[in-house]
Write a structure and sequence with these properties.
Elements: E1 3-6, E2 16-21, H1 28-39, E3 45-50, H2 65-70
Parallel strand pairs: 2-3
Antiparallel strand pairs: 1-3
Length: 71
């Protein structure tokens, strides 16, 4: 699964990880722009952003409930 992790440099301020699943008409590239802007509002978190089956750089299988579970 294509994914990007944005991590804090100062681990002493770490509060958790936010896993971001983009909407139906987006992909990893569009999500990164959003997350970079959003991260300034919640700076104590790491962010995991990914493309699920059928979107962006993932494989081109049909997106179904089962394929997302398998991801």
């Amino acid at each position: 699964i294509p994914a990007v992790i944005l991590s804090l440099k100062d681990r002493s301020k770490y509060s958790g990880t936010i896993i971001y699943s983009h909407g139906n008409s987006s992909d990893l590239k569009g999500s990164l722009r959003f997350i970079c802007a959003f991260a300034g509002q919640l700076p104590k978190f790491d962010y995991l952003v990914y493309d699920y089956t059928g979107y962006g750089r993932s494989n081109k299988r049909e997106t179904t409930e089962q394929s997302i579970i398998e991801d």
